[in-house]
Design goal:
This protein is α/β, with parallel strands linked by helices. The chain contains three helices and eight strands. The radius of gyration is 16 Å and the shape is globular. 33% of the residues are buried.
């Protein structure tokens, strides 16, 4: 099972060649079929609905669900309660929710995370779709990943029996909050195009 963020490292692979359930975020539907698509930004959810995606389940926030036709569903409830702003469901982005959805739907499988770069290696935002409709301009400063790191780390922590394998480039550093027994890191170049 694969979970895709939209970090630029994922452009090095051909997602169509990967066999197995696929969970993606936001505009990935423009280029690849996903079994499940998480769009917690209302504009992105509307874009996905307008694309009339076949055989893709779209997920959005409870706050937006009344805007959309039957067939769009809500993201899972958080598996914990916290007192910080980053623990509020509305502060969770599509990436952390996609990781949470992976254990909600497929908790008996290893979740392979691809495109969760977190940090930019340049002075601009790291996103495959930067500068396109519903995204930041290509020259915008990188997004601070602290919320994503905390939120995805909480998923790892709340589901210790699920294995998470993060596929990244060599120069990527595992955040301290992600250093857990059920989290492994491997180079994205080792990805085999077969069923996982």
């Amino acid at each position: 099972m694969y979970v895709f963020g939209n970090g630029e490292s994922r452009t090095s692979i051909d997602i169509d060649k990967l066999d197995g359930p696929k969970i993606g975020c936001n505009a990935i539907h423009r280029d690849y079929h996903m079994d499940h698509l998480v769009c917690v930004d209302r504009r992105m959810a509307q874009e996905a609905v307008d694309a009339n995606l076949k055989h893709t389940q779209i997920y959005t926030r409870k706050d937006w669900i009344s805007w959309f036709p039957q067939g769009v569903t809500t993201v899972p409830d958080l598996p914990y309660e916290g007192k910080q702003r980053w623990d509020e469901p509305f502060q969770w982005g599509s990436g952390p929710y996609a990781v949470l959805l992976s254990v909600t739907l497929y908790n008996d499988r290893t979740a392979h995370l691809i495109g969760f770069d977190l940090h930019s290696t340049t002075t601009t935002v790291n996103n495959v779709y930067k500068g396109t409709s519903n995204y930041d301009k290509a020259d915008k400063r990188p997004v601070d990943p602290r919320y994503w790191i905390h939120q995805i780390g909480m998923v790892f922590n709340c589901f210790p029996n699920t294995q998470f394998k993060i596929l990244v480039k060599d120069d990527w550093t595992l955040p301290k909050a992600w250093t857990q027994p059920n989290v492994k890191v491997d180079n994205i170049s080792t990805l085999l195009y077969n069923k996982i």
